[in-house]
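Q: Joint fold for the lines below.
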Amino acid sequence: MGAALHPVSTADRDGRTLRAVVLVTVAAGLVLPIAAGLWQTARAGFGVLPAIGAETLSLAPFATLLDLPGFGTALRLTLITGFGATALSVLLAVGACAAMQGRMTRRASGRLLTPFLAAPHAAMAIGLAFLLAPSGWIARALAPLMGWDRPPMLATVNDPWGLALILGLTVKELPFLLLVILSALGQIPLRQHLAAGRSLGYGRGIVWIKVIMPQVWPLIRLPVMVVLAYSLSVVDMALILGPSNPPTLAVLLLRLFSAPDLTLLLPASAGALLQAALVALGFGLLWALERSGRIIGRWWVRRGGRGMSAEPGLWLAGALSAALFAAGALAMLSLLVWSLAWRWSWPGVLPETWSLRAWSTPGGGWAAALGHTVILAAASTALSLVLAIAWLEGEDRARRGRAGWAEALVYLPLLVPQIGFLFGLNVLFLRLGLTGGYLAVIWAHALFVFPYVMIALSDPWRALDPRLPRAAASLGAGPWRRLVSVKLPVLLTPILTALAIGVAVSVAQYLPTLFMGAGRISTLTTEAVTLSSSSDRRITGVYATLQAGLPFAVYAAAFLIPALLHRNRRGLMAEAGR
Amino acid sequence: MTLDLHDVAVTWKGGAPLFPPLTLSVQPGEVATVMGPSGIGKSTLLDAIGGHLAHGFALSGSIRLDGTDLTTLPAEARRVGLMFQDAGLFPHLSVGDNLAFGLARRVRGRAARRAAVAEALERAGLAGLSDRDPATLSGGQQSRAALMRTLLAEPRALLLDEPFSRLDAALRSELRRFTFEHIRRRNIPALMVTHDAVDAEAAGGPVVDLTAGAA
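A: Joint structure:
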């Protein structure tokens, strides 16, 4: 081999520029602000916030925080609801997958899950409150049987144990985890392993625990961490469904942050640090569980016990999941029914009179909120989509996959609790004079939209038949023509799906809108959360219906547009159906 | 136009070469055949010539087409056509638009380009199928359309990656004849990778066993 080595770099120069642009954008727009926000929060947590004249480093903010009335309860509630909802969601999702396996195609289950994924957390929470409240649908349906002549005196929503919150979180997280597990199952030889295990005398449930789950877990670890981080630090659902006095830690912190007494910003920041530490602790616990599970699991596998059947457990998980899905669907329906109700007295299951009156005054508020929501969603999703496509195209041009650190970077905004860095960021933006404007909110939304768009688009992008761009190149098409006339049109379906997911994520944002908009930009979500504590369910129903309806409409469009455009392209329709 | 490979070898991440250094000269109008067990890197060799190697592969030796060194050129500038076992037609474009995608920029004007596409379709026995969805064509029709798309780009060499293996026996010999005839008529060198000894025999050119590394 006398001739010189040519490392493959012929077409790389363009790719390098593109990748540099993406890297700088991600570093400056994503990593740097999160780090800066955490740093500001940390300083304030330790007593340094020059803006309010606090300049001495001390542990006093933590002491103040610990002395707050109800702090201990808030902490306990956060741990119970956060870990409880995560554990319940994971167990149910795995059990339901095992129970349903082979009974439903991936396409059908994807379609079933979509509306639940699209529904914003706040809308789902409001719907569940309408369903579960003592005067809600369930109580009304039970009233004739139980002989209740007035709503029962039960705290079914905002209960002091946080059960309603756990239920609400589970209804939202279960579909997400199911989707993630289904896609992970597509990557392992599930059928063969199930058959092999069962032919060796193991029951179906045991094969799932001993053989399938150890393979699935590494593929779903990150999404489970996202669910855990979210459940431990959720604000909007906790405001609507959670206990109110004392509330969970995240809600307590929000109250401190928005209190008129500015000195409370210091213990609030200390609490935000504690919140971040709780999430870190949660990740540590997950890691420890995984380690010990591996050791115990190996011992258990080596014993070779065929054990009792886990079948009843699978059926229980399947049944509970079905019940949760039914509750979610009824919750969504109740939003619409309430927005159209006029006279609806106890214990009627349906309103006696219907009316469009709640809808008839768009000028009274919902038109403006809808407008803001649409603008924010469109801008942040467009930004995220362009960045995601640039990132993936950069990988293609460099002809290499994604490094581990880059994958972690994508997930970063979803793993750090929002309240941990949003406040610090707000301080930073205030100093730069950027707060309260559209741009700051768009950027804050994009911070959370981008990871989901990226995750949604990555797998289909990599699954694109590599021969198509190669054939285009051999026909003389340069990198840009390959992107615009081959890759993007062929990937239209996943691109529109990613867009729909992006819109759903943007519409659902509560805390970033509130903090970065300095309370001046009201969206359907911020209004719905505010209204949820008011007594007029009709108006609340209007906002929550719009909030859920917007992502639904975009999902429907994402489904219909390719079907229409590609109606004469069988190759692409088959692709979309996979 | 001659395709000259001199001491060509490909390594993966600094490891041992996938196959012994290959030296081969393919004359215009000739179809050379590369054979060898699967996994030895036959397709990687084609990727190296076409400019499609993935990151991590390194190429040594020289690849010259008509005297010009190809190794420093990006794929789209090499003018080396590519044929796959399943035709690789773009699923979002009609049959005619697939051909128009390939048609050289040299042909200018809407009418002239449409006429060129129609003529190519006719030559391939696909007249009147211009507006069809490529997925609705038979396997043989797809392969012929793909060959026409490749030829319209006026390649200076052609790479064939098991181009006939998906077709049944009768279609295979027909398409072989069709493909080789076009290559001869264009007078361009072609390199074919195949498992099928009959393909090699029909090609009539030099046959290389990649394990041995010499023509």
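Q: Anything notable?
A: The interface with chain B takes residues 1-8, 10-11, 398-400, 465, 467-468, 470-479, 482, 485-486, 489-490, 492, 566, 568-572, 574-575 of chain A (CB under 8 Å). The first helix of chain A runs from residue 12 to 45.
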